[in-house]
Amino acid sequence: MTEKKILIAEDEKPMARALEIKLNKAGFETTVVFDGVSAVKELQAGKYDLLLLDLMMPNKDGFSVLSDLKEIKNKVPVIVSTNLNQKEDIEKAMDLGAKDYFVKSDTTISEVVDHVKKVLGL
Questions:
Q1: Which of 19, 50, 95, 116 gives the lowest tally of CB atoms within 10 Å of its CB?
Q2: Which pLDDT score is estimated for 25?
Q3: Which keywords belong to this entry (predicted)?
């Protein structure tokens, strides 16, 4: 099996680094970007199997990234990783095409790997 490529869009650098290390150790190839504009550009430039997307980022928030992906018909599965836990935020993200959603403060890094594997069907 070839390595699955994951794009991590997370503006909190320590969190991004922790996700990168854990996902790499789990056998995934990762790329990290720190804002929504870079996430959309990277998805248009490269082939990714999954996007791990924070909602609160500079330049373009995660909701806008989801809208852009829908508009350009990019079908990459998206897992939203955020500290927004309002029902409305979850529903909005899922309506915009997110496949999964978790609250960072309630989820361990190991559980994030489980979310990724589940969405990728591994």
A1: 95
A2: 96
A3: Phosphoprotein
